[in-house]
Specification:
The chain is of the alpha/beta class. The chain has a single domain, classed as Glutaredoxin, CATH 3.40.30. It has 6 helices and 7 strands. The strands form 2 sheets. A 5-stranded mixed β-sheet has the order 5-4-3-6-7. The chain has a two-stranded antiparallel sheet with strand order 1-2. The longest helix is centred in the first third of the chain and has 12 residues.
């Protein structure tokens, strides 16, 4: 798994908001990259809804949130529409992005681990943690990095 201080690998991918390129965000936005196991599952829904409910604070902190897992674009679109996510969900069907970031699989099964990275405007990882950190914890890291 990538560690704090490392440069975040660049990627381009399809998302619920159209094509996304990490490179185009450099110098413009901080990025919260949430790797989560599955769309429309209880813990994943709770995690992403908590971010949705605090999205104005992320936006005010010049930060974009990106959710990512290997689900299809159609699955992501239905999930995002159902819960009104104002941030893109990235399609990583080949799991190339997951592998670049060193995110493992849950007990070697099909589902990826739940990992959150924060990438600052320079492209450096400033936060890397497995699990489901609160939006307040993420925002505190972003605000402390300014």
């Amino acid at each position: 798994m990538l560690q704090v201080g490392q440069t975040a690998p660049l990627f381009s991918a399809e998302s619920t908001a159209g094509p996304i390129s990490l490179e185009s965000m450099r110098g413009q936005k901080n990025v919260v990259l949430i790797f989560y196991p599955g769309d429309d599952t209880p813990i994943c829904t709770k995690q992403l809804c908590a971010v949705r409910d605090n999205y104005a604070a992320f936006d005010a902190a010049e930060t974009i949130v990106l959710g990512i897992n290997p689900a299809s674009a159609a699955t992501h679109e239905a999930f995002a529409r159902k819960f009104g996510y104002p941030f893109p969900l990235i399609v990583d069907e080949a799991e190339d992005i997951r592998k670049k970031y060193g995110v493992g699989k849950i007990l070697g099964l099909f589902a990826q681990q739940r990992v959150v990275f924060i990438i600052d405007k320079t492209g450096t990882v400033i936060y890397a943690r497995k699990g489901n950190p609160s939006p307040n914890e993420l925002l505190a890291v972003i605000k402390g990095a300014r």
